[in-house]
Amino acid sequence: MNADADIYGKHRDDLIRYATTLVGPDDAPDVLSTVVLRVLSKGSLSDLSEPRPYLFRAVLNEARSTLRRRRPQWTSSEEDSVSESRPDPEVLQAVLDLPARQRAATYLVYWEGFTMEETAHLMGTRSGTVKRYLHLARNRMRGALDEHWY
């Protein structure tokens, strides 16, 4: 196996889960494939000094491009490959309605358990920005869920 295949194999599952959270299960493989092909067209995955954070940022950017082209078509009633324990459908829909960066921060911190610093590194931003995304996401979700539950 070559170095590119090793790097891809090591991070593929995490990146697919991340992309699924951002764009849904139908588009996630396409987002990851686009990212990997783009990197390989310019060189090699092994040329990257830190492949994992680079690939996470690239997946976020490609997901944002995909979302600009169309809204995700998946709902909480579809197969959920993101988590073994499914959240309430209302909570999942509130997360899906978040802007991509808020959704990404929410996924990385609350589903994957990354620290603020790790999340910031993966998203290519500062930890204060991640805290802001989470603050905005909680407020937005609180508003959406209050409407649903009260």
Structure description:
The protein is mainly alpha-helical. It has one domain: PhyR, sigma-like (SL) domain (Butyryl-CoA Dehydrogenase, subunit A, domain 3, Up-down Bundle). Helix 1 runs parallel beside helix 3 and helix 5 packs across helix 6. It starts with a helix and ends with a helix. About 8% of the residues have low confidence.
Write the layout of secondary structure elements.
Layout: H1 3-23, H2 28-42, H3 51-69, H4 89-96, H5 100-111, H6 116-123, H7 127-149
Main beta sheet, described?
A: none
Topology order in helix (H) and strand (E) letters: HHHHHHH
The portion of residues assigned to helices is over 70%
In the CATH classification, which architecture applies?
Up-down Bundle
**Rounded to an integer, what's the Rg over CA atoms?**
16 Å
Arithmetic mean pLDDT: 83
The secondary structure category is mainly alpha
Looking at this structure, what is the CATH superfamily?
A: PhyR, sigma-like (SL) domain
What is the total tally of β strands?
0
The best one-word shape is globular
What CATH calls the topology is Butyryl-CoA Dehydrogenase, subunit A, domain 3
Please, how many helices? 7
Low-confidence stretches: 72-83
